[in-house]
Amino acid sequence: MSEENSNQVKRGLKKRHLNMIAIGGTIGTGLFLTSGYNIQNAGAFGGPLAYLIIGILVYVLMHGVGEMSTFLPTSGAYATFAGLFVHPVFGFAVGWNVWINASISIGAELVGGAVILQQFFPSVPPFVWCVVIGVIVLALNLITVKAYGEAEFWFASIKVVTIIIFIIVGILMVVGLVGKQGFIGFANWNAGTLMPFGFSAVILTAAGVIWSYLGVETVTIAAGETENPEKNVPAAIKTVFFRIVLFYVGSVTIMSLVVPFDQVSVMNNGYAGVFKLAGFQAAAVAMNIVILTSLASCTNSVVYVASRMLMALSQEGKAPKVFGKVNSRGIPAPAILMTMAIGLISLATNFASPDKVFVWIVSIAGFNTLLTWFGILLSHYCFRKWLVHHGGKVENLKFKSKAYPLTTILGLLFLVFIAVVTAISPSTRLTFYIGAPMMAIYFIAGVIVYKRGKIIPVKYDSFLNANINNDSFLKGGEEK
């Protein structure tokens, strides 16, 4: 085996791994520990509505990136697509934004896990729990990609079963069959609680809700290490909207029905709180344990995404060469270690106010995700044009986005709208002031690296030759 071939990741993820990564990869801190905060800010109906609005956007987003990932499965995924179909500088900016954003997310997940564990062991400093969770996640990522996939499979299974139980218990509480409150019905939904702060608050909350969906793109990055990605990636993506409605909108709606919107606490009520109201004290404790495993799962997933993104950036000349190295087990160890090192810097938040800093991290990461999602939609728009320009046939795509280009264009406009609203609103202006300069730095650095000729051009024909049958898409198989 040549050195070039040995320095590659391995396709060790199976269909069941990919399906569970797609289902549970996003369920964690963003849903369990911020849903109450979002309901408080948007109202009893406005909270679930904010999740639904972003859920529809995610549906459009995933179909676009799924189309490209099925066509060209690669660990660089949407950052590689941005550089290939839009411009190398744009790909540079999206890639570094993803990596830094993911590193921030690691910190948030670790802090969230420490907050949960402190409820069980109040005498142990949060710093200790952050280190413990971090070491476990690091080990899972350094073994093999199959170890990561297996861990995510079981973590996701626990999360899925738990949320289904939560929804069932919540419904029984609403109709009065469980809990001491008796029949609740829609008592917590009235004219004064549905959207008490107006629709503008729903839009602002939607910007924060983006954090809850952060990681939904993991399945497309995993395409580069999945067996038979042309079949397994579309199969996983096709269930995205169902999962969104059931797990996100469904569970948040139940919470808003059971608990008055102005009494939902960011850290202490939420999902565990609903079980307490139902009279299941043991279940409430178990829910905290489930949330803890979910946080470990999301940290595991985020480290995976960030390390593969850093590896891809390196292999495309957009990051130091050392981070593009892959060991004999197909693991990008340098990229994983660097990612985890940056993520652990967030432990400093424990010396401040963990709950407040946690919300700040969530807000900034959510705002910066706008660039990633904008990059995905813009790349998809350009991909279709690229394909047709080179003689490709859209009808031959093995997975096609629906209602193109209308949904893609509307998605782009909506992301711009959220960015503008975030920038002008006093309550979210800080996230814009921090996030926007970060984005500008990515582009400026990208221009410098590009002008110095450091970026390695990504040629579409190499992808085609490696991943699909040329003749199915290109007339004559050559660029015109």
UniProtKB/TrEMBL annotation:
Q: Which domain of life is it from?
A: Bacteria
List the InterPro entries hit by this protein, alphabetically.
Answer: AA-permease/SLC12A_dom
Q: Topology relative to the membrane, per the entry?
A: Multi-pass membrane protein
Q: Name one GO biological process term.
A: transmembrane transport
Transmembrane stretches in the record are 20-39, 45-65, 77-100, 120-141, 153-177, 197-219, 240-261, 281-310, 331-352, 358-383, 403-424, 430-450
List keywords of the entry alphabetically: Amino-acid transport, Membrane, Transmembrane, Transmembrane helix, Transport
Query: Where is this chain's protein located in or outside the cell?
Result: Membrane
Principal localization? membrane
Q: Which GO terms describe its cellular component?
A: membrane
Matching Pfam families, A to Z? AA_permease
Q: What is this protein called?
A: Amino acid permease
Which species is listed as the source? Aminipila butyrica
